[in-house]
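This week, think about what follows.
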Amino acid sequence: MPADPTSHRADLPLYEAETDAQYTLDVITSLTGLDGQTIIRYQEQGFIRAVPAPAEEAPLFDEETLRQLRRIEHLRATCAVNDTGLKLILDLLHEVECLRQERLQSLR
């Protein structure tokens, strides 16, 4: 078993349909089971971002947003963190992911 269980991800192909998927608020709520107001609140707090779109259009969300929402709900359910703790954890997870990407690039 490899020392880094995520190292295989760099070898997997990315398909355009997977990276360019965009979801409406209604679809995101059904995929996550979250209330639409909760998702909008997370967006206002900076926990997630909508895909850039003209101001008159409804917000769209991508695969990364879907993963982030699932991560947020997992943290809330397992760690019972408040918004301040959630912000700290998400920032640290982002930093770890950036360091992981730097490490993978340096190994190439």
In short: Residues 1-10 have pLDDT under 50 and may be disordered. The first strand starts at residue 22 and ends at 24. The chain has one domain: 21-107.
